[in-house]
């Protein structure tokens, strides 16, 4: 089983980087985390242990968490002291050596909904099989930077 270590990483879905946008406003408002086009410059993720609760994922130096917009939750980087989420990762060996699903403590998963779209954090409906079969849009490659 592959396990993550603390430190700098890159996160991708297939060949697409997962990162904050390259152009952001100068405010301290939360910044969205997106699926970027292939070949885009990636901001490094820093994974820090958060005890038994999982890990804090930082992108562009800011901790990440969810924020509700309408009836959906999305992934944001927090710049103004908002409470970050602790994320748990689960290795998905059938998808590759560095493949993981990322979920919060309530069981909601990171899901990419398309290129240049913000990462949604939502409940997945999975068939009761062991090991679980996750959709490709919920599997992320996490590699050391």
From TrEMBL:
Question: What Gene Ontology molecular function terms does this protein carry?
Answer: serine-type endopeptidase inhibitor activity
Q: Which Pfam families match?
A: Inhibitor_I66
At the top level, the lineage of the source is Eukaryota
InterPro entries documented for this protein? Inhibitor_I66
Could you tell me what this protein is called? Uncharacterized protein
Species for this entry: Collybiopsis confluens
């Amino acid at each position: 089983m592959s396990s993550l270590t603390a430190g700098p990483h890159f996160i991708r879905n297939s060949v697409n980087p997962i990162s904050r946008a390259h152009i952001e406003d100068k405010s301290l408002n939360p910044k969205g985390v997106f699926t970027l086009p292939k070949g885009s410059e990636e901001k490094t993720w820093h994974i820090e242990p958060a005890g038994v609760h999982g890990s804090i994922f930082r992108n562009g130096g800011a901790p990440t968490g969810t924020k509700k917009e309408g009836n959906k939750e999305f992934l944001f980087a927090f710049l103004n002291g908002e409470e970050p989420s602790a994320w748990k990762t689960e290795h998905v060996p059938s998808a590759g050596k560095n493949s993981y699903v990322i979920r919060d403590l309530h069981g909601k998963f990171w899901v990419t909904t398309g290129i240049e779209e913000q990462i949604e954090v939502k409940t997945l409906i999975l068939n009761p099989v062991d090991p679980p079969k996750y959709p490709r849009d919920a599997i992320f490659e996490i590699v050391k930077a």
